[in-house]
Amino acid sequence: MANSITGVNDDIISSSVLSGFTAGIAPIMALSTDFSSDAARKGDKISVLRDNTAIDAAADKATHAAYTIQDCDSDAFEISLGQPKYVSWSLDDTEIAQSSVLNLELYGRRKGNKLAATILADILAPVTAANFGSAAFTGAASTFDADDVADIKNAADVANWDDQDRYLVLAPAYYNALLKDAAIQSADAFGGLEAIRQGKVPTLMGFRLIMSNLIPANGENLVGFASSTMGLATAFRYLQPQDGNTYHRAERLTDSSGMTLGLRDWYNNDTGTRNRVIESVYGKQVGLSTGILRMVSA
Hints:
Blueprint: H1 2-24, E1 31-40, E2 45-51, E3 74-80, E4 85-92, H2 93-98, H3 101-123, H4 129-132, E5 137-138, H5 146-158, E6 167-170, H6 172-179, H7 182-185, H8 187-190, H9 194-197, E7 203-204, E8 207-211, E9 222-227, E10 229-239, E11 249-254, E12 260-268, E13 273-286, E14 292-296
Parallel strand pairs: 1-10, 5-14, 6-8
Antiparallel strand pairs: 2-3, 4-13, 6-9, 7-8, 9-14, 10-13, 11-12, 12-13
Helix pairs in contact: 1-3
């Protein structure tokens, strides 16, 4: 019976870690991100497609003349997988026996969220003036409203962003400032009641909105950014242990989004503890300088 309970507990912790990680890492939806459950090693290179095409002007078709075939300028982000990052913990036999399902779920989710916070800070570290230019918005959250989103939209339009791939990632104070905007609170103007009933603004002026309390300041008071997905590219892979290991479990943790983490699990007979590591090997690469519009508080 003890083994059966332990197995159930393992699954509870694993699924809650992945859930907490996926929730915390949500802002990478705004980037060009490549997920895969394939195994990889530190230093491996991953290619992520980038469309850098300058659209040629439409040409006149002369009678009996051949068509002039216009070129595409698609290339790829070349991403090197970096040093794996991980969270770890151990529970002794007594702690395992006394832990409730609720405690294990909460504990696992917090561990997953901590790993997400660490990785997200690293991925978003390049969102700086040096890489992406002057901020599209500067100001306190109390001054941020739908008109400012319209101004950011205008900057995205000028940069020729694809209408289908626009995201706006906001710190909580700035996201919630939009909920106070009368234009958004109006069900008729917004086209729904999400802002009032659920406290959510899923889309606004062509942007899909993501709230995150994990946006790093980067020494430049960063509080959010708009993204075309071409400004930064990331790739995630599963770091597989070498053959011959004696782990109790060493496997992929994958959810429906494709996000994949690695689990390593072993028992220490000397201390009577179960040790677990959840890890991710990933990489990032700065893309187009026009692909991200920064928001800063000052």
